Amino acid sequence: MWIAPAILTVSTWFACGSTTGVPGTNRTLIDPPTEVSVSDSNQISPIPALERGFSFRVRPSTGENEAAASWPPAGPWRGFDQLGVLTGSAVVPWGEIASADRLRVGREILQRTGRDRDPASMAFLAVALAVVENDDISRRAIEEAIRLAGDEGASIRSAIETEIETRTQARAARARENEAATLQAGRPHLAYDDQSPFKPIDPFLIPTTLRQQRESVEQAVAGLGLSVVPTDWTLSVGHGGLEAVSRHGVRMDRYLADCRTRLGFSADVRPFPGALVLIRVPDFDDARLIVADLFRHQWSNGDPSLMFPTSAGPWVFLPPPDSENPAGGPRSAEFEEARIAGRAVILTAHGGRRLPGWMVEGFAEASAAFLVDPSSVEDALRPEAVAMIRAGRSPGWINSVSDDDASWGPGGAARGLALILVTRLLESGDDVFPGIVAGLKAGESVDKVFRRWTGLTLQQWFDDSAAWFRFND
Known about the structure:
Layout: E1 10-12, E2 19-21, E3 28-30, E4 34-36, E5 79-80, E6 84-86, E7 91-93, H1 99-112, H2 119-132, H3 136-149, H4 153-182, H5 188-191, H6 206-220, E8 227-230, E9 234-238, H7 242-262, E10 276-280, H8 284-295, E11 306-308, E12 315-317, H9 333-348, H10 357-371, H11 374-390, H12 413-426, H13 432-441, H14 446-454, H15 458-472
Parallel strand pairs: 9-10, 10-12
Antiparallel strand pairs: 1-4, 2-3, 5-6, 6-7, 8-9, 11-12
């Protein structure tokens, strides 16, 4: 009687040394591969492994010649499981073998183990092939298993289809887990920390830096139909005509200059050795894939943009607005571009030494306020932040918030608190916040810097801010 395949399990080959005879043949088999199931499901009828392998030439699936394969194309082959074909000491993944040859070598193994007429064994092979590639070859294997099952053909078809679906979903889930495990998480701009001594920008190197940067950008977005337009300080990338794409670059240049002025720099002094790369990708999946491929990084959930500081200049990815980021609102693209400018300027001012996250994000929100619309930004963030302080939370809480915490997301508690704290520093005098940034970038202690510019240690200033917001805002 045919036994339906079990729910997905992970196949593991092993041999314990004992041998058994195959009825009707003079072949000797070692103990077959077993399937270890985390769901305690019944075992699939295993395909025994031959004690001695046989020679059988197969082609690699890459289209390259046989010499390029990392395994011997002629075997010796001893058996197979759901992962691949067993050689003398390893398993060659099914996906590395040409499609037609997967079925050929599978049939040969079934014939040599006396199972070429067994529908359960052919079904086992068919499932393995279909999970790797749903093509004419795997469909042929399925039909062969159904034919061998005779009157049980309908039930075996149903079982095969269910098993393929289960294994395919599990395979996709493992692929996603593996990808996530190899990609970094968090907000890269908040983790950025370049401890090298600050050096003024060399004007003679700017043309070469810009050229290399543009070549990298064009390679990254190749095939997406995006235009690449350089402006003064920005390399604007997006969908549409040159004029429309350049308009975003010109606006970013203006935002950068205004933010530089806020930090005490002359508006005409270049902020980067190269440019700020602003990539407005029309599809979020494209943005996610570019980020994963180029920077080996996951997209931070909920964040409307992602910034990667580099020695030449920051790379920024800005997906299209969605229903949560309507045009004209404080989370729209125009406001986000202002935040991007604020982040880019404060991260690179006086070198790349790391700053507290609340200063970076507070200045980003303050930039969106003074560059676009103060009332929209403050109405969205300020009331909740002030209410939090009046409810008893110390502003010093913000120093304990990790870089990848959800509180830094749009509308998050840390973001609102950062805004009102940085705004208070900006309103304390034109030189106060720029002086604090310069001192911290020079490597001075935070308390020393705050004493110089506020007369208080950082914790004392947090306490003073708490008292001020309780009674004066």
